[in-house]
Amino acid sequence: MSKSKGYAAVTAKAPLAPYSFERREPREHDVVIEIRYCGICHSDIHQATDGWSDYQEESIFPMAPGHEITGAVTAVGGKVTKHKVGDKVGVGCFVDSCRTCTECRRGLEQYCTVHTVWTYNGREHDGTPTYGGYSDRIVVDENYVLRMPDNLPLEACAPLLCAGITLYSPLRHWHAGPGKKVAIVGLGGLGHMGVKLAHALGAEVTVLSQSLKKQADGKRLGADHFYATSDAETFTKLKGSFDLVINTVSAQIDWSEYLNLLKVDGTMVVVGLPEKDIPVGAFALTAGRRSLAGSQIGGIGETQEMLDFCSQHGVACDIEVIPIQKVNEAYERVLKSDVRYRFVIDMATL
Ligand code: NAP
Ligand code: ZN
Ligand code: ZN
Fold first, then answer.
1. How deeply is 282 buried, as exposed, middle or buried, from its count of CB atoms within 10 A (0-12, 13-18, 19+)?
2. Alpha carbon distances (Å) from 290 to 171, 205, 287, 294
3. What is the 3-state secondary structure (H, E, C) of the chain?
4. pTM above 0.90, yes or no
5. 299 alpha carbon to ligand 3 midpoint, in Å?
6. Are 136 and 347 in contact, with CB atoms under 8 Å apart?
7. How far apart are CA 138 and CA 118, in angstroms?
8. Best CA proximity match to 189, nearest among 225, 231, 158, 220
9. Ligand 1 within 6 A of 162 CB?
């Protein structure tokens, strides 16, 4: 074991503070990564405050969050073939899975039916708690480590590892592309990547935001249209408009209202994870043979595909780099939807 330092919440809702813990010695297939940058995902806040307690086993504290990790390889185990010392690499939301269930074998490790090892607030197969990317280094099996694009800044690519793949996967699965009308609900970390990726895939993109404050940004990011959901007329005007609505909102909103914006046979994909249940009206579904679906990040293979797509299309995230000492302040701003459009911690400040 060797010492690692980072920032952690000691109990639910406690502010994040400096914290030291142990990382395992690299095994034969392990890669040791010096963490340079880590994005702040809204999921970090839900978990550090134990906000998903209705749906999950109790969170594990102390908790060092962070699952949008980029850095450089500093050492490798004897049997590692996929990465070498000095490579620019990334780690996303999980660091292992069972590898043998049907979903793992299909490359859908995020839906492993046995045990996905989450990057933090999770347990290794032997029960050891995991600690995330708000820290100086991490030890990960080579099969769960991604190659980062060479032509894009490492800090602007960190949020691709969660926000990027969480939007890329449903956009691909539900065939966003030329001739398709896609709405992205919520222009935060996930939403802004949804706009960039849907635009790069050739879809006609509409942003549905609480107000028009972010309209100029939305257009710059690639949106063709921008509407405020605080204006009731938006819902009348856009009724029956979209093939695909991707809902990234972290809070409880009326899903039925958004289902009504779908064309016949359209799909609303929920990726936002509010802390309480949301009731849905049957008529919003039956009226247009509509579907309500969900999606969770993406597998390792698809995440690499997304990184390669971003490299080819020059797509990275719009970020605000912060020193780790400002992490609690950043959480407050995320909760106020005051983020343009992802906070990324510069780990050199640790
Ligand atoms: P974020 O940066 O805070 O963005 C969420 C956006 O939702 C805000 O910017 C805001 O956009 C909108 N919003 C917030 N509160 C709202 C309210 N009360 N009513 C209407 N709109 C509201 O968060 P994020 O990091 O993108 O994450 C979004 C959600 O996705 C979180 O719940 C997170 O846990 C979840 N998530 C899921 C996955 C997955 O695999 N499914 C992966 C990562 C994250 P406007 O200002 O434009 O209205
Ligand atoms: Zn995330
Ligand atoms: Zn599995």
1. exposed
2. 17, 19, 7, 14
3. CEEEEEEEECCCCCCCEEEEEEECCCCCCEEEEEEEEEECCHHHHHHHCCCCCCCCCCCCCCECCCCCEEEEEEEECCCCCCCCCCCEEEECCEEECCCCCHHHHCCCHHHCCCCCEECCCCECCCCCECCCCCECEEEEEHHHCEECCCCCCHHHHHHHHCHHHHHHHHHHHCCCCCCCEEEEECCCHHHHHHHHHHHHCCCEEEEEECCCCCHHHHHHHCCCEEEECCCCHHHHHCCCCEEEEEECCCCCCCHHHHHCCEEEEEEEEECCCCCCCCCCCHHHHHCCCCEEEECCCCCHHHHHHHHHHHHHHCCCCCEEEEEHHHHHHHHHHHHCCCCCCEEEEEHHHC
4. yes
5. 11
6. yes
7. 13
8. 158
9. yes
| Closest-CA residue to 192 (of 346, 39, 300, 299) | 39
Is the Cβ atom of 303 under 6 angstroms away from ligand 1?
no
Q: For residue 214, give the ligand 1 atom closest to its CA.
A: 47
Nearest to 21 by CA among 165, 129, 150, 168: 129
For the CA of 337, the nearest atom of ligand 1 = 9
Contact 148, 70 (CB under 8 A): yes
As a whole number of angstroms, the distance between CA 283 and CA 290 comes to 10
Strand 17-23 versus strand 2-8 pairing type: antiparallel
Cα(40) to centroid(ligand 2), Å? 8
Looking at residue 57, its pLDDT comes to 83
Task: Give the mean pLDDT of the chain.
Answer: 97
Tokens in use for 53? 């307690």
Residues within 5 Å of ion ligand 3, judged at the Cβ atom: 97-98, 101, 104, 112, 114
Ligand 1 in reach of 4 Cβ (< 6 A): no
93-140 pLDDT, tens digit per residue, is 999 999 999 999 999 999 999 999 999 999 999 999 999 999 999 999
